Automatic annotation (TrEMBL):
Pfam (any one): Wzz
Annotated InterPro entries: Bact_polysacc_biosynth/exp, GNVR, LPS_length_determ_N
This protein's record includes keyword Transmembrane: yes
Keywords: Cell membrane, Membrane, Transmembrane, Transmembrane helix
Cell compartment(s), UniProt: Cell membrane
Main location: membrane
Recorded topology in the membrane: Multi-pass membrane protein
Protein name: Capsular biosynthesis protein
Residues annotated as transmembrane: 20-40, 173-194
Species whose genome carries this gene: Neobacillus mesonae
PANTHER family, per the entry: FERRIC ENTEROBACTIN TRANSPORT PROTEIN FEPE (PTHR32309:SF13), TYROSINE-PROTEIN KINASE (PTHR32309)
A GO cellular component entry from the record: plasma membrane
Length: 245
């Protein structure tokens, strides 16, 4: 038996070990589904929209000021996740976590050249996520006036609790698909390794190659014989041999 495998040999091995590969696919699919539905906790998101806009004295559009407001968003993104804001938000929420833990639950996103940015909070409780997002945004709106002596922040849209909130994580279909793909690859790898490390002699060519001796004869596979009872015309039970190869 050759130590290397060509493409045709690989297809033959996969066809031969299809039950093993199917077992891996089924096993990893079941495990990923079980972990998704029974181990991982669902995570919900809630977002608020915040506008950064400073009006001029004449209440006219100042494009220089608009660009300044856009540039400020990067600074505001850092401030909203700082202890100065989060510690006050924790006091209002009356929750027993540190500001570092709350910081990990917050994401601040803004679009290019936009004066609007989103404050998104993740939590395993949908109602709590909404409450946290609104409280953090309101705390930021109030505190930024004292921190930077400006009044250019307003909340465009508050987070709202939906009737049937849908978690953003985990994603069952995605997780199960990944599990099936991993099982498929693991099954193929196991089948190929099994075949490569299998040193048994399977045919006369293997005997000639490994032993260096000619094959004088071979014993064919003996078919299995099953007996089943039949009855003759008089109703007597007889035995009939049926050969199944």
């Amino acid at each position: 038996m050759e130590s290397t495998l060509n493409l045709i040999d690989i297809f033959k091995i996969l066809k031969k070990r299809w039950k093993l590969i199917s077992l891996f696919i089924f096993g990893t699919g079941v495990v990923s589904a079980a972990v998704t539905f029974y181990v991982l906790k669902p995570v919900y998101q809630a977002s608020t929209q915040i506008l950064v806009n400073q009006k001029t004295i004449e209440n006219q559009i100042d494009y220089t000021l608009l660009q300044s407001n856009v540039d400020l968003i990067n600074t505001y993104s850092g401030i909203i996740k700082s202890p100065a804001i989060l510690e006050k938000a924790i006091d209002k929420l009356n929750i027993n976590i540190s500001w570092e833990e709350l910081n990990q639950k917050i994401k601040v996103n803004n679009q290019d050249n936009s004066q609007i940015f989103l404050v998104t909070v993740e939590n395993t409780n949908a109602e709590k996520a909404v409450e946290m997002a609104n409280t953090i945004s309101e705390t930021f709106q109030n505190e930024i006036q004292h921190i930077m002596s400006v009044n250019n922040v307003s909340i465009l849209a508050k987070a709202e609790l939906k009737n049937n909130p849908v978690p953003v994580r985990p994603k069952p279909l995605f997780n199960i698909t990944i599990g099936i793909v991993i099982g498929f690859l693991a099954g193929i790898g196991t089948a190929l390794l099994w075949e490569l490390f299998d040193n048994t002699l399977k045919n006369d060519q293997d005997v000639e190659q490994y032993l260096g001796l000619p094959v004088l004869g071979s014993i064919q596979k003996i078919p299995r014989v099953h007996k089943k009872g039949i009855r003759d015309l008089k109703g007597q039970k007889m035995e009939e041999e049926t050969i199944v190869s």
